[in-house]
Write the structure tokens for this entry.
Amino acid sequence: MDTPRRDNPRLDIPLRDDDSAILDHLRGLRAADLPVHGGRTMAYVYDAGLDGLDELAARAQAAFAGVNGLDMTAFPSVVALENDIVRQAATLLGGGQDTAGTFTSGGTESCLLAVLTAREHARRVRGVTAPEIVLPVTAHAAFHKAAALFGLTVVSVPVDPGTFRVRAADMAAAIGGRTALVVVSAPSYAHGVLDPVAEVARAAAERGVLCHVDACIGGWYLAHRRLADGIAPPPAFDLAVPGVTSLSVDLHKYGYTPKGASVLLFRDAELRRHGWFAHASWPGYPVVNATLQGTKSAAPLAAAWAVLRKVGTDGYTELSRRVHEATARLVAGIGRIDGLRVLGSPEASLVAVASADPALDPFVVADEMRLLGWYLQPQPAFAGSPANVHLTVTAAVAEPARIDELLAGLADAVAKARAYGPTAVDPGLVELAAALDPDTLGPDEVALALQLAGVGPGGALPDRMAPVLAVLQALPPRLTERLLPEVVSRLYATGPA
């Protein structure tokens, strides 16, 4: 006999529910999210626009849902799938017979492991006890996270204010005796441009320093684009470049696999070994971890393998060709919209669009685009890069008619944003904020600062984010970094719904 449904009187959480009610509730929650298909969400999600890909990935995930990647001796299927994926990535990205790799949960974990490996290599091989990491200011935040977690000092190098590419000479000058790792981007997320990988890698090699290429967002796309006929190849950026010792590439971006799939490649297994963790000094089972995780689901691994096999080299080459042509069409179209300008010369599929008119606020443009059903990612001003909106072009938006629809919406949003006017920030607020010490802010001061930024006491964000972004942009970076976790923490609650 079925157990009757009853509610827990203390937590008021139903102990049982039928399948339809559970799924209906999940669908209701998803209704408030940005769409993950159709190309209108131009950040965070990557859509190939291919029929049946999601269904295949879901079946592959289901087949491996219970498999634990912690112990590959107990689940040899994990090794088989990972070897296949790493071999494919290495072949595509300039690896040789000695190339080794690790499947990770995403770009951040790949970057963290690259930094951890470099720190251990510098300590064991060169005796470096106070390691540094040399980064362009455009390097992804994941490297700053890695430095904070693993105790490295960040040496930030400015980029050219016109091209937003770091100068190789500046990177070379920043390398010192304590440098554990030099990082370049292919491309940088913010502007979609490639750093001078070959020149920087050569300078690092001359000093015996490791060089990592962050190709998380663009590596799969760029490597397949160079296989397409009639398209100029990108500058050399992968493991075939002398001096490049590691490279990260995400499969859940332009590999169009489900989330949780990235590959970190090393020049050889000996270098990779510096980042592994092994422990036998306890009464439990011997532990060997190649990633930051211990127990980990093999479902993303299986889904990634299935999608890679389904799409294949020819499929990815065609998708990359379409994205390349769509990006060129988008950049040209933006150039015809009065008041907008593209930052730098995008060499990949990422476009940063700033204002060429003081009366036009790019954050207001982003708000207007969201009201039209498009999500463009706001990027605050920093280190010579003005406030802008970021667009990631995927295959789902690559049809000419779709790009034209996007451009028409953008022109409409610009007209509305110009009529709305730019967001004004109270100079007195900025002056007051500049005097605050982020390390000594109390709860009352934090609450006041958030209220001035437009964040309500319960954590509710306003419909228009331009005023919030304008305030956060005007504050000193350390104060903004102090407030951002407070904004996010207010979104989470354990009290009654």
In short: The chain has a mean pLDDT of 93. The two ends are 33 Å apart (CA to CA). Residues 401 and 407 are 10 Å apart (CA to CA).
